[in-house]
Amino acid sequence: MTASSFRYLFKEGFRNTWTNRMMSIASICVLMSCLVLMGCATMIFLNIDSLLGRIESENVVMVFVQDDTTDKELHDMERALNQISNVDKVDFVAKEDAYAEQLATMDESARNFFTEIDSEIPLPDAFKVTVKDLTRFDNTLKEIKQLDNIETVRENKDLAKKLVTIRKGIEVIAIIIVLVLFAISVFIISNTIKLTVYSRRLEISIMKSVGATNSFVRMPFIVEGMILGTISGIVSTGLVGAFYQFAINQFAELIKSLGLQAVEFSKYALPMLGAFVAIGILTGVGGSIITMSRYLNKEGSEISGV
Q: Distances in Å between the alpha carbon of 271 and those of 60, 156, 276?
């Protein structure tokens, strides 16, 4: 196919979009609705994921050390903990600091009682270990317990398992929503292209009769689908950003009172724009190909009778 043919077919695609502008606007609106729902759901899932990440980072393993452990052995333990593949961070908690922190939470009478009955600090030194991947929590815990000079290990295995289950559930829900909305978008674009094909069935029949190839006939419709998808993707990203900012402003006080922090839309705006445009183009092109394939597998004379 020559360059002039490509230019002609692309012009035809743009002309079709403008000529059938009411159907084009309807397709864009429906596709935008699907993309906006995808975007809003994505921002909700990102905020939930961020919250789960914060909870996971606080789900630490406390490794309490035996009282007779030397400074060298403490240093060796810290190095050994850091060498465990699934350990993200290791913080040493001196018993003096831990005891002072505990006393600070008590009222004055209770604080005086504990300081007067025993001058010795009743707490051991400890390491606060943050785990990277909670799905490997059990194996990491086994590796930690194999180290020397450990008095006891305190962990919350049940919370870790619940967090893993919640995260997996959210991922499954997100995938299902995206797939369902994508299927709806393809269906709607296909029907829009189908109406366009029906209105131009005589023209397509003539083109086929004079020897036009399927690719030549199909290209304007594919271009039309790309245009609809691109416009929908760009506008949808702006709408998601506007809706998200509006929701954040409305619930700002509630979010602050709960000690939470909303995810910034600006960090995900460009990736979302790229994804939306890609989904829009894929949906438009896919809908065009699916629809046109039903008509171009027969002779043009048969198309005119559809």
A: 32, 36, 8
Is the distance from CB of 156 to CB of 134 less than 8 angstroms?
no
pTM for the complete prediction?
Answer: 0.64
Give the position of tokens 């600006």: 266
* Angstrom distances, CA of residue 192 to CA of 198, 199, 272, 291, 304: 10, 11, 25, 9, 18
Parallel/antiparallel/unpaired status of strands 61-65 and 150-154? antiparallel
d(CA 201, CA 123): 85
- End-to-end CA gap in the chain: 28
Cβ neighbours around 122 below 10 Å, total: 9
DSSP labels, 110-122? HHHHHHHH-SS--
User: HSE (CB half, 13 Å, CA atoms) of 294?
Assistant: 14
What values do phi and psi take at 158, rounded to 5? Answer: -65, -40
What pLDDT shows up at residue 301? 42
Distance between CA atoms of residues 251 and 245, nearest Å: 10
By C-alpha distance, which of 208, 229, 217, 212 is closest to 286? 229
What tokens were used for 160? 């870790």
Report residue 235's pLDDT band, with 50, 70 and 90 as the boundaries.
Answer: very high
